[in-house]
Design goal:
327 residues, mainly alpha, Tyrosyl-Transfer RNA Synthetase, 2 domains, three-stranded parallel beta sheet, 55% helix, binds adenosine-5'-diphosphate, binds sodium ion, ligase, Tryptophan--tRNA ligase, mitochondrial, ATP binding, tryptophan-tRNA ligase activity, ATP-binding
Length: 327
C-alpha cells in the first residue's frame, strides 16, 4: 500500500476570512494529527493568473504564512512552503499540460467563473487546474482536502495521473478527495451568497484579524429577517441560520446546541452571543498573527525550511518524470 500523503494549497490572498477558516483551515489543522506526511502550500504561482501588484503579493504571502501558523499549522507536523520557490511545480505543470486536451479545460469552474468577469482571461488562468494537478502529483499525494467548488479540478488531477501512468508506466497514485467541510459561511450582507474576499461590501466579511469592535459591528449589522426567534432553516431564513452556523462552529457546538442556547433570545440578543463566540475564538489568533507579522525573519525562515523539505520530495519525482517522458 502507498504511504498516505496529503497536499493542499491556498492562494496568498492576505489574511483569511471566517469562511476560509471554517471551510478549510480548521480542517487543515486537524489533519496534521491524522496523516504522516502533509504539505500545505501558499500557491503564489496561482495568484498571478490574474493581475497582481508585486509588493502586495509579497506582503500577502507573509500574511498568509503568519495566518496559517496562528491558526495552528505546525511546521514540525506539516511542510509549509511557498509554491514558486519549488520550480518543479512549473515544470511538471508544463509536462502535464501536454497531456491535457483543450476542451477538457473549457468547462472547469475556475475558467468559467473568472474569465467571464474579464473580456479575455490569460492562458495561465485557463491552465490553472493543470498547475493544481501538478501541485498534487509532484508529491505523489494520495489525499487532497478541497472545498466542494474544487471537486472538478481534483477530477482533472485524477485523470492526469491515470493518463500519465497509462502512457509512461505506473508512477502516480490516484489522489482522493477529502471534502474539507460542507460548512458554508455566508455573506453577512447577502446570505444568499458565500462569504468571500472578493465581496466589495466590507461589512459582509469577517477577517480573522478583525478587532472585537469590528466583529461586533459587522454581526450587529448582519442581515436577518422579521422573525425575532432563532431557528435553523437555511432555505427560508438564510441570515439567522448563517449566524447559527458561525456560532456553532466557533463555540464548537452542534447546530441543535447552538439553537438551544438561543432559546428565549431575540436576534439582537443572539447577535451578542454570536459575537462573543467569534471574538473569543479569534482573539488569540489575531494576537498571534500580529506577533508573527512583526517577525518577518522568522516567517521567512519557516517558509525556507518548508521549501527545502518540499524540494527534497519533489526532486526525485520530477527526475523520474523527466526520464519517463524521454528527457
Ligand atoms: P474566496 O471565496 O474568498 O475567494 P477561496 O476561493 O480562496 O476563497 O477559498 C479558499 C478556501 O476557503 C477553499 O477551500 C474554499 O472552499 C474555502 N472557503 C472560501 N469561502 C468559504 C465560505 N464562505 N465558506 C466556507 N468555506 C469557504
Ligand atoms: Na475564490
Amino acid at each position: 500500500s502507498v504511504e498516505r500523503r496529503v497536499f493542499s494549497g491556498i492562494q496568498p490572498t492576505g489574511v483569511p476570512h471566517l469562511g476560509n477558516y471554517l471551510g478549510a483551515l480548521e480542517n487543515w489543522v486537524s489533519l496534521q494529527h491524522q496523516y504522516p506526511l502533509i504539505l500545505y502550500s501558499i500557491v503564489d504561482l496561482h495568484s498571478i493568473t490574474q493581475p497582481q501588484d508585486p509588493e502586495q503579493l509579497r506582503a500577502n504571502i507573509l500574511d498568509m504564512a503568519a495566518s496559517l501558523l496562528a491558526c495552528g499549522i505546525d511546521p514540525e507536523k506539516a511542510i509549509l512552503f511557498q509554491q514558486s520557490q519549488v520550480s518543479e511545480h512549473a515544470e511538471l505543470s508544463w509536462i502535464l499540460s501536454c497531456l491535457t486536451s483543450m476542451p477538457r479545460l473549457r468547462h472547469l469552474p475556475q475558467w468559467k467563473m473568472k474569465s467571464k468577469q474579464k473580456s479575455e482571461g490569460s492562458v495561465g488562468l485557463y491552465t490553472y487546474p493543470v498547475l493544481q494537478a501538478a501541485d498534487i502529483l509532484l508529491y505523489k499525494s494520495t489525499h487532497v482536502p478541497v472545498g466542494e467548488d474544487q471537486v472538478q479540478h481534483l477530477e482533472l488531477a485524477q485523470d492526469l495521473a491515470r493518463i500519465f501512468n497509462h502512457r509512461f508506466g505506473d508512477l502516480f497514485p490516484e489522489p482522493h478527495t477529502l471534502l474539507s467541510s460542507t460548512r458554508k459561511v455566508k455573506s453577512l450582507r447577502d446570505p444568499s451568497t458565500k462569504m468571500s474576499k472578493s465581496d466589495p461590501h466590507h461589512m459582509a466579511t469577517i477577517s480573522i484579524t478583525d478587532s472585537p469592535d469590528d466583529i461586533a459591528l459587522k454581526i450587529r449589522r448582519a442581515v436577518t429577517d422579521f422573525t425575532s426567534e432563532v431557528t435553523f432553516d437555511p432555505d427560508n431564513r438564510p441570515g439567522v441560520s448563517n449566524l447559527v452556523t458561525i456560532h456553532a462552529a466557533m463555540a464548537q457546538l452542534s447546530v441543535e446546541e447552538a439553537v438551544s442556547q438561543a432559546k428565549g433570545m431575540d436576534t439582537g440578543a443572539y447577535k451578542r452571543l454570536v459575537t462573543e463566540a467569534v471574538v473569543q475564538r479569534l482573539t488569540p489568533i489575531r494576537e498571534e498573527i500580529e506577533r508573527l507579522r512583526a517577525d518577518r525573519t522568522h516567517l521567512e525562515s519557516v517558509l525556507l525550511q518548508g521549501t527545502q523539505k518540499a524540494r527534497q520530495l519533489a526532486t526525485p519525482v520530477l527526475k523520474e518524470v523527466r526520464h519517463r517522458v524521454g528527457f
